[in-house]
Sequence to fold (367 residues):
Amino acid sequence: MSDLLYSDTEEALRDSVRRLFADRCPPEAVTRVYDDPPQNFSGVWHSLATDLGVAGLLVPEQLGGAGAGAREAAVVMEEIGRAVAPVPFLPSAVLATVALLHAGDTETVKALASGSLTAALAVPLSTAPGDTVTGVGVGVGNGGLTGEITSVAGAGEADVLVVPAAGPDGLELHTVDRGATGFHVSPVLTLDMTRPLVNIKFSDAASTRIGTAPADAAVAAALETGAALLASEQLGIAQWCFETTLAYAKQRKQFGRAIGSYQAIKHRLADLWIEVNSAAAAARYAADACARQDDDATISAAVAQAYCSGVAVHAAEECVQLHGGIGMTWEYPAHLYLKRAKSDQLAFGTGYRHRARLAELVDLPTS
Fold:
């Protein structure tokens, strides 16, 4: 097993991303994504993608990327979770990029790595690794894409859509430029507006096929990588909620005593501390196994999602409850973390779905 401790390079990356979010993406600014019109965070993503170069972390150096791996991407995901940052790192720099790389694309990936373009993989965010992706239809001859895909993350503002399509010889991967005709994007009202979802309807939309081989493996790799790295975002959410609640319990006084001195509060925080540290181990191992393309990567991703998704929601719930009245207010950012945690819990399949898949992977008998 490799060393799961964070390297100096990873810590430096974390520090840079955290400082950027603290300066450009504070909680009071994130809350404004619920305003009408919502706050625009495209400048934050531009700084993150181009100035820090995180858009190309998973892209090889020969294609203009950083030549890093899932461990470094997981560090960025942790910080996105800690800040509930409304940036398209997961849909563009992870899902779309991994799918395109596995399909053999070079040109679009170069643009994604430089930060000049953003992309989205056109599959429902609820699609779990191992689920069958059917895709939209491909017209005969020069016909375009036709069909509908619901609840796609990051597609509302993406420059390129990476679309799985059911061709005559199996699943194909196509790209559709934002300026093309023949498709319509409609927003979906969701609990978490910091990661908006859209429905996409294609009507003979012009597209470009990527590669000639079936794209099942490319889509599967993107979903598995996304699930493994989402656990790190869930870890970041849980860490922020625990640390913030602990600090509040130490300074908030009732009846002349800090509320953290009461046994009931101590026990709840102690239980949460154990959960968060267990989630850190699961998320870190999933990212490391993914980076090494280890045989255990699929199992570790299922374990991380089955566990970390619930921990993030529990930590956010405890954050709201143990803050008392202030935790229920719109001005306090606890609701942002609860919404993102609950949204993440449903992304890439529920915890039950991952536990069921884990049972299949390790040959546990069905009841």
